[in-house]
Amino acid sequence: MNFHSSRNTIGDARKTPAMSESFSSTMKYSAGPVKTLAAAGIGGFSSILGVVREKAPLRRAIETSEVGDAAAFLLSDAGRGVTGEVLMVDAGFHVLGM
Fold first, then answer.
1. What is the pTM of this model?
2. What contacts 10, CB < 8 A, 6 or more positions away?
């Protein structure tokens, strides 16, 4: 099911696999470095987090809950007018061009 047909389904389409598929193909979010158990296996990850905390405009790294909040916003009625965008969830680090 494509994005347009999933938007025209009756009922709460946001909770269906078709809506998830159309969301992932049309809406993107990009998370900055997030401290997770999997990230601990990346060599030098602590150094990367340190640079982000030091240089990012918000002077901190992001939390996993912030990525979830961004996705929830895009899936909610509040995000209904947002299309074709990449939402950066990185405490502003992307604006530095590093």
1. 0.65
2. none
In whole angstroms, give the CA distance from residue 31 to residue 78. 20
- Comparing CA positions, the residue from 43, 90, 41 lying closest to residue 70 is 90
Kindly give the residue spans of alpha helices, DSSP state H, lying in the chain.
3-7, 17-26, 45-55, 64-75
The span from the CA of 64 to the CA of 40, in Å, is: 14
16 within 8 A of 75, measured Cβ to Cβ: no
29 contacts 86 by C-beta, under 8 angstroms: yes
Along the chain (98 residues), what's the average pLDDT of each consecutive run of 10 residues?
Answer: 44 54 59 86 92 95 93 92 90 89
